[in-house]
Write a structure and sequence with these properties.
It is a single chain. By secondary structure, this protein is mainly alpha-helical. Helices cover 39% and strands 0% of the residues. The N and C termini lie far apart (64 Å).
């Protein structure tokens, strides 16, 4: 079996201070915006991997790990759906609270 994991040090998303730029820019929502991998020499699979310009294999993390990326996207879509539903309920409660009793505002 081929080991397809990569090192964060091979990713152009890794900043000099050790932070992940994908997390900082909130493209990666499963971690804090101040996320930085604790072990840079630990091979891993990351859907946000971006090869450095000199790398032979220029595939992104989404291309390398399509199942992982699809799982992440599905999880985020579900979370966004919950957030959207909660926002709609909140707006409905707010409207109900500010409408005079028995009157409906168009």
């Amino acid at each position: 079996m081929i080991d397809d994991r990569i090192l964060c040090t091979n990713c152009r998303e890794l900043r000099r201070n050790g932070d992940c730029l994908a997390a900082r820019e909130r493209r990666r929502l499963d971690v804090s915006e101040y996320y930085g991998p604790s072990e840079l020499d630990l091979p891993r699979r990351c859907e946000f991997f971006a090869a450095k310009p000199a790398a032979v294999d220029q595939r992104s993390g989404a291309e390398r790990y399509p199942d992982l990326y699809a799982e992440y996207a599905a999880k985020q879509a579900e979370l966004n759906s919950f957030r959207r539903e909660a926002a709609v309920r909140g707006i409905q409660r707010m409207k109900a609270a500010i409408e005079p009793s028995g009157e409906r505002v168009g």
